[in-house]
Amino acid sequence: MNRAAVLAGLGTWLPENVVTNDELARRLDTSDEWIRTRTGIRQRHVIGPGQSTGDLAVEAGRRALKSAGTDQADMVMVATSTPDRPCPATAPDVASRLGLTGVPAFDIAAVCTGFVYALGMAAAVIGSGTAGSVLVIGADTFSTILDPEDRTTRAVFGDGAGAVLLRPGDPGEPGALGGLDLGSDGSRSELIEVPAGGSRQKASGRSAEETGAYFTMQGRAVFSEAVRRMATSVETAADRLDWAPGDIDRVVLHQANARILAAVADRMGLPADRFVSNIGRVGNTVAASIPLALADGVIEGALRPGQRVVLGGFGGGLTWGAMGLRWPDISPV
Ligand code: UT7
């Protein structure tokens, strides 16, 4: 019998510190009105001194395990583009801090598609019998790589973490992941990048501004790619599950911009209210975005057991991907 990866637990964590649009407007040439109308974002959470991506990942991971009623996992994947250090990966440290020393643990770097990539890899690992349960965590702290003077990226990004525990199960049961679609286009990598800090361009010895160690994004070009790629990927995943687009009850996309969600809905010919959104409260939290939206979707009653749900992401690389499931009866912690 085929083994599927089944969603068994969901946990999230946001840093305490909230930065509102008005607070940003006091320091930068922007306004609450511009940010709300161009992005739908009202506020974002930002880590404080001494906090890191790994700290958020540990808290979200702990909650996902609690939500699943266990303290065990056979593998830990952390999707992140803001690891605690360039080397080693953040996941082994996170695993140990969760009491899981000894299990395989590694990072996955696919920027805003990182969580969907990690879900896909976890489903393959579980499906092949390589591991039993897999803890998949999406965590990012883009506040640590933004140019403090860049009003556009400062308005958009927030920090956070979300996690799911996947267990082996039957492909037909609620929570079973399926329909995986993943893709990339490295010829357009310059649209979303941190130019320095890797082997091509070192970042040491001078300021982040001089060395190109800040995050950069060509917003307009990214916007149209995001709409096209996410709409196609969601349709592909649905098709692989034998669902017509109209059969999808809820779409949970990477929360990059409320206008992107509306444009994807329009392109797919689906009502906008089928698209779960929490971007107003958290902004674009990169790899944490989809699990944070899932948890808020459950809490607000938009996601209910039995619904056909498709998750979709798009981000730097460029990368994109989607997967579907019938929503299970789980309570986020
Ligand atoms: O998460 C991974 C994938 N990322 C995405 O999908 C992001 C996709 N892109 C976007 O969401 C949007 O492109 C942004 C929100 C990043 C930018 O919104 P936009 O409507 O595309 O604005 P723009 O960059 O085209 O800029 C329009 C104007 C410019 O002024 P001029 O040149 O027309 O005078 C900008 O300088 O808005 C200005 N602007 C701002 N004004 C006030 C840009 N940022 C701000 C700001 N406050 N924060």
Automatic annotation (TrEMBL):
Reaction equations catalysed: malonyl-[ACP] + acetyl-CoA + H(+) = 3-oxobutanoyl-[ACP] + CO2 + CoA
Domain Beta-ketoacyl-[acyl-carrier-protein] synthase III N-terminal: 106-186
Keyword presence, Cytoplasm: yes
Region (ACP-binding) location: 255-259
UniProt note: domains: The last Arg residue of the ACP-binding site is essential for the weak association between ACP/AcpP and FabH.
Domain annotation Beta-ketoacyl-[acyl-carrier-protein] synthase III C-terminal: ranges: 240-327
NCBIfam families: fabH, PRK09352.1
Keywords: Acyltransferase, Cytoplasm, Fatty acid biosynthesis, Fatty acid metabolism, Lipid biosynthesis, Lipid metabolism, Multifunctional enzyme, Transferase
One MF term in the entry's GO annotations: beta-ketoacyl-acyl-carrier-protein synthase III activity
Subcellular location as annotated: Cytoplasm
Entry protein name: Beta-ketoacyl-[acyl-carrier-protein] synthase III
Gene Ontology biological process terms, A to Z: fatty acid biosynthetic process; secondary metabolite biosynthetic process
InterPro entries: ACP_syn_III_C, ACP_syn_III_N, FabH, Thiolase-like
Quaternary context: Homodimer.
GO CC field: cytoplasm
